[in-house]
Amino acid sequence: MRALKTIALIFFFNIAPLPLPAHYTFSTALANTYKMVLHMQVDSADILINQCYKNDPQNNINLLVANYIDFMKLAATEDYGMYNTLSKNQDIRLKILKNDNTNSPYKQYIMGEIYFQWAFLKLKFGREISGFWDLLKAYNLLQTNARQYPTFVYHKKSLGLLHIMLSLIPPSYKWAVKAMGYTVDLNTGISEIYEVIRSNTAISDEASLMMLWLNLLILQSDNPAKSFAPADSMARNSPYHAAKLIQAYAFKKKNKIENAINILENLPPNSGLHYTPYLYFFKAHLYLYKGEYASCKHNAELFIKKYKGITLKKSVYYHLYLADYLSGNNKKLASYRDTILKVGKTFSEFDKIAYKAMQNEQKPSLYIIKSRLLYDGGYYHQSMAELAKIHPDTLHNDREYTEYYYRHARIYQALDDTAKAIKYYEITIAKQTNKDYYFAPNAHLQIANLYKNTQPDIAMKHLENVEKYSGYEYEYSIHSESVILKNYIKQKY
């Protein structure tokens, strides 16, 4: 009997299949699933990735695409319940990759990408310390992969983004980058992303979308006309619905509000953009600029109903406050003010603006608000007409008193009256007594923009003055533009 058992065991182990080794293949099925993520059609992507796992369970590219799906779900909804469920997937995927002995450049790249995506999500969901450490791990893995596999391009997308973002951090945080021993360079980061775009690999389209966003938000934010053309062209020709959002934002940056609204109101029914409640916040924002307050409130209320996160909560109620205030409906203003002071957090610049505006019990100047919104909507002459209704000495709020002069400067700059723009920017700088306002640092930045091609020395002095301010709204974006403008002047002269 013992002999028979021995023979049976030998027979079993001889015929039992050995586990297949892991491999890294960006198959057509996985590429299509990944494209669904870029379309923001995450429900369809979920179905496809499950099929990919079933058909080829040893393909570790499955882990990357599955992580993209989790990332898109959470970034688009900010659903805390979903975060608690999906966050467990990070360790599961990383464990599989750490236990894989395959010698492939994809392994560390995918690990770095997983750490990078979860770092962003953790920071977004208030897990700052864990997010910070994940960011460090991502950077180190991607850097190591770049040294070991210099001809491999996939890691250069996120590595390039990290190089850009780290090069633009405000001076008060630069010590952290130096302490970690990182050498970062803006131009290196830009070159890395463009290398991925030109590589014609599976992630080239994502890199293109990323660069368009970077140009609109940071790299060419001082020149909407220059950044608008490529965004508009790509959106018209791109199969990705996310490109439509970029096109709408580009129109918004050019203060062409009607064009932006038209794009968002005519999205295809199957557009993945309908998945995210941020779409309603964006529309509420645009309708407020246009002065269509009922449409603003409708979209703001849809955002509140569908949104499960905490970012933009103060801002969306501030939109409701302004829509009623500007409509002459004062019944709910006190209630909105109380909600703004209590709800959500001040993570975003929009929320910081809303919170600061409501800290003053006195109602804001109706004409200042109208002027600001009309300017942002591209209605420059109407914006100036609202300012004409104000005598500055009647403004007892220090912030509004400073903004009165700042608004003049912005309008004159938009109307290409450089002399008057500079004059009012200089008045703004002189009038601002509180360094927490963004008016003076942005005034220095805009004067530098106006002088960059004619008097670069003066431009550089104003850029140096930007660094004297801290703790104000839009600090990161203003500082980023200052760094980029310094880089431009240094390269040109």
Structure characterization notes:
The protein has 493 residues and is an all-alpha fold. Helices cover 71% and strands 0% of the residues. The chain contains 27 helices and no strands. It has helices at residues 2-15, 28-38, 42-55, 61-77, 80-86, 88-98, 105-124, 128-148, 156-167, 174-179, 186-198, 204-219, 224-237, 242-253, 257-265, 278-290, 293-306, 313-327, 333-342, 349-359, 366-376, 380-387, 398-414, 418-431, 439-451, 456-466, 475-492.
Percent strand = under 5%
Gyration radius, rounded: 26 Å
Distance between the termini: 92 Å
Largest sheet: none
Helix content: over 70%
Average pLDDT, to the nearest integer? 88
Q: Return residue spans where pLDDT drops below 50 for at least 5 consecutive residues.
A: 7-18
Given helix and strand content, the structural type is: mainly alpha
Number of helices: 27
Which shape, going by the Cα principal axes? globular
Name the features:
493 residues; mainly alpha; 27 helices; globular
How do the helices and strands line up, and which of them pair or pack?
Layout: H1 2-15, H2 28-38, H3 42-55, H4 61-77, H5 80-86, H6 88-98, H7 105-124, H8 128-148, H9 156-167, H10 174-179, H11 186-198, H12 204-219, H13 224-237, H14 242-253, H15 257-265, H16 278-290, H17 293-306, H18 313-327, H19 333-342, H20 349-359, H21 366-376, H22 380-387, H23 398-414, H24 418-431, H25 439-451, H26 456-466, H27 475-492
Helix pairs in contact: 2-3, 2-4, 3-4, 4-7, 6-7, 7-8, 8-9, 9-11, 11-12, 12-13, 12-14, 13-14, 14-15, 15-16, 16-17, 16-18, 17-18, 18-19, 18-20, 19-20, 21-22, 21-23, 22-23, 23-24, 24-25, 25-26, 25-27, 26-27
